Amino acid sequence: MGKITAAITAVGGYVPDYILTNAELEKMVDTTDEWITTRTGIKERRILKGDLATSDMGAEAVKELCKKRGISPEEIECLIVATVTPDMPFPSTANILCDKIGAKNAWSFDLGAACSGFLYALSTGASFIESGKHKKVVVVGADKMSAIMNYKDRATCIIFGDGAGAVLLEPNEEGFGLVDSVLKSDGSGRNFLYQLAGGSLMPASHETVDSGKHYVFQEGKTVFKFAVTNMAEVSAEIMERNKLKSEDIAWLVPHQANLRIISATSERMGLPDEKVMINIQKYGNTTAGTLPLCLWDYEKKLKKGDNIVLAAFGGGFTWGAAYVKWAYNS
Ligand code: UT7
């Protein structure tokens, strides 16, 4: 019997209907379409309206994935949700999502690694397949960033959006799936990108609400410097470890935080623009949602055997890269 790898065998995604454009943001904060476009590459982002939460977006993504693969949610054995915007502190969004889709036989949990959450969860989910423990693991990256956004802070509200993506992992004995991953974290980065209140350090109070401490804070310039360096560095590392040359790589799947960070990474890897998945212009930064939403958007272009590198950098700091051999033609 060959070595068991965790192959991605289906992809699902969901973005809300409501489109928040740069023109609309111009009316809300002191900004311009020109500034947002040239500094970030973002033109619009999706916003989840009404009485809905992260689990609702994740549920739609997983339902689509099950339909595509022709399986029932009851066949899912384990489901992981990467998110920084859980429906509530507990129970986990994964538990709620499983209930909503009828995944009655899955054990499930949330994983928090901000914008690197999907990469962390992919690696975690893959290990249950590689060990032989499970045959169907679902990994979801989902965030309702609008829930923690201050729409008076032009430094953050122009960047983030809502969305969810999901992948199904199944065992493979031909070498398809997750081949390698490099994951890193450095908690000293917590001072530059965070949501201060609402946890055990600073429980919710009138004061925390009045002073806006439940919103995302980002020191953009500092995060930018770390992101540019580390995302490129870790992507080069995964290429080196796996003896991959630029011509061996079919696609880079980068976290969608800023077009300039994506370009720095693809340049370091020696990849032309046409090998880089980009959807930041229409969804903005959906945190844990960016990587699976890229796979969802580009699924039809992916071919069996394609070498793809996923890379992310985010709050924590957390960052990493993964090398995946694509397992199917759509
Ligand atoms: O996904 C998790 C990881 N996050 C990231 O990777 C994000 C990393 N950071 C970034 O992408 C960029 O730093 C931002 C897009 C957030 C900001 O771009 P920047 O080029 O670093 O701008 P800046 O923060 O240095 O601000 C430049 C100027 C400032 O004005 P002064 O001080 O030069 O007069 C800001 O006040 O732009 C001003 N500014 C804006 N102007 C118009 C900041 N936000 C805006 C805005 N519209 N929305």
Structural class: alpha/beta
Taken as a percent bin, the fraction of beta residues is: 15-25%
Parts with pLDDT < 50 across at least 5 consecutive residues:
none
Which overall shape is indicated by the principal axes computed on the Cα atoms?
A: globular
Number of helices, where a helix is a run of at least 4 consecutive DSSP H or I residues: 10
Average the pLDDT over all residues and give the rounded result.
97
Strand runs, count: 13
Radius of gyration: 19 Å
Sheet with the most strands: spatial strand order? 1-7-6-4-5
Number of domains: 2
Task: Catalogue the ligands.
Answer: oxa(dethia)-CoA
User: Roughly what percent helix?
Assistant: 25-40%
Overview of the molecule:
By secondary structure, this protein is of the alpha/beta class. It folds into two domains: 5-175, Peroxisomal Thiolase, Chain A, domain 1; 179-282 and 299-325, Thiolase/Chalcone synthase (Peroxisomal Thiolase, Chain A, domain 1). Helix content is 32%, strand content 25%. It contains ten helices and 13 strands. It has a five-stranded mixed β-sheet with strand order 1-7-6-4-5, sandwiched between helices. It has a four-stranded mixed β-sheet with strand order 8-13-12-11, with helices on both faces. A two-stranded antiparallel ribbon has the order 2-3. Helix 3 (54-69) crosses helix 4. The longest helix has 22 residues, at 220-241. The model has no long low-confidence stretch (mean pLDDT 97). The structure holds oxa(dethia)-CoA (UT7). Oxa(dethia)-CoA (UT7) is lined by residues 31, 35, 39-40, 115, 154-155, 158, 220-221, 223-224, 227, 257-258, 261, 285, 313-314.
